[in-house]
Amino acid sequence: MEPVRGDAPERSSLHKPESDVKSCPECGSSSVVEDLTRGERVCGGCGLVLSDHRIDTGAEWRAFSSEEADSRSRVGAPMRYTVHDKGLSTVIDWRDRDVSGRKLSPTRRSEIYRLRKWQIRSRVHSSMDRNLAQALSELERLASQLGIPQPIRELAALLYRKSIQKKLVRGRSIEAMVAATLYAACRIRQKPRPLDEVADASRIDKKKLGQCYRLLLRSLNVRIPLSNPIDYISRFASQLELSSPVQLRTVEILERSRDMGLTIGRDPLGLAAAAIYVASIMMDERRTQREIAEVARVTEVTVRNRYKEIVRKLGIDTMSLV
DNA sequence: AAGACGAAAGTGGTTGA
DNA sequence: TCAACAACTTTCGTCTT
Of the candidates A131, A142, A193, which has an alpha carbon nearest to the alpha carbon of residue A168? Predict the structure, then answer.
């Protein structure tokens, strides 16, 4: 397989273990081999692929000798959108000496002094950068509270930069726009979080957040498809401590429901919740409507309505459920 | 007593005149 | 800009396990 570079969306697969596993779930071996050229992490014991589609952070060129490697290498930290100057800063330090340690001439010295002054001013003192610096720290706070991985944070930061350029932030709270970009980034990467969850973690109410999110979609011309209920399953299932057979059955139910046209115009969260409810009963790991409604952030009524439809249309025997 | 059920009224967003 | 509309929520009384 070709290594994946750039920001190719990673498709979540139910059985793919999280990428930061320390030991192999299959044989227990703790030797994990990174195969960067193939973008995979492989168990050294049994060869099980622990995660694939990893982003290759290595160089995009090949070198055939160490001299060639040296000459081609470009030094510096990787560019990041979550640092307000993209991490590309070169800082002029305070010593009045050049690289070889000699004292600078007076004219050179005043020149350096001037450069340093303007570097400091231009970095933090322009209003856009001040806004950005504040927004990015809020982004970090929010993202870590929600447990959102770095690549998604980077995407959110990129979206925020774009919305500053489009002057979307003016007249709106920074927090609201940050929350909206984070919510959007999660959905783009197919790891959606309920809007309520993001709203709770920030100090923004759901309504404002929704407004900012829609504004973002319209102004940046990004087309984000409806979230897929399946993308919620593994998170909800683990919150409810449901086994993986239940998750599998849930996915099955969702796929059949989609084929029967039960999903159009329905809230993906409600569908996910209802499918989990049905599957949990079928697999004899019953959870109450209330418990499920709570993690999916919908009401019991919605769970009920969806699950009734599913049972009726898919011809699931109600008796076998009880 | 907890969970499930379903009716009725309220909410916020979308659509189309 | 406004009304109709679909989906979801809130609330509440009743039935079931």
Answer: A131
User: pLDDT at residue A24 above 70?
Assistant: no
Are A160 and A136 within one domain?
yes
Chain C footprint bases within 7 A of protein beta carbons: 6-11, 17
The reply to whether A299 has its C-beta less than 7 Å from any atom of strand B is: no
Q: Which residue is nearest to nucleotide C9 (CA to C1')?
A: A299
The nucleotide minimizing the C1' distance to residue A299's CA is C9
My answer on whether A211 and A255 are in the same domain is no
Lowest mean pLDDT among A52-56, A185-189, A219-223, A293-297: A52-56
A303: the nucleotide nearest its CA (via C1') is: C8
Range of the domain at A29: 22-50
My answer on whether A178 and A243 are in the same domain is no
Output phi, psi for A7, to 5 deg. -110, 50
Q: Is the domain of A244 the same as that of A285? A: yes
- Helices (DSSP H) in chain A: which residue ranges? 66-72, 106-124, 127-146, 150-165, 174-188, 195-201, 206-220, 230-239, 244-259, 268-282, 289-296, 300-314, 318-321
- pLDDT surpassing 70 at residue A322: no
Q: What is the CATH number of the domain that holds A315?
A: 1.10.472.10
The answer to whether the C-beta of A305 is closer than 7 A to strand C is yes
If asked whether residues A164 and A214 sit together in one domain, one would say yes
- In whole angstroms, C3 C1' to A265 CA is 22
* Structural domain total, chain A: 3
CA of A321 and C1' of B4: distance in angstroms? Answer: 14
Nearest protein residue to the C1' atom of C10, measured from CA: A299
- Is residue A260, in this structure, part of any structural domain at all? yes
Q: Are residues A213 and A145 in the same domain?
A: yes
pLDDT of A1 > 70? The answer is no
Residue A218 Cβ under 7 A from any strand B atom: no
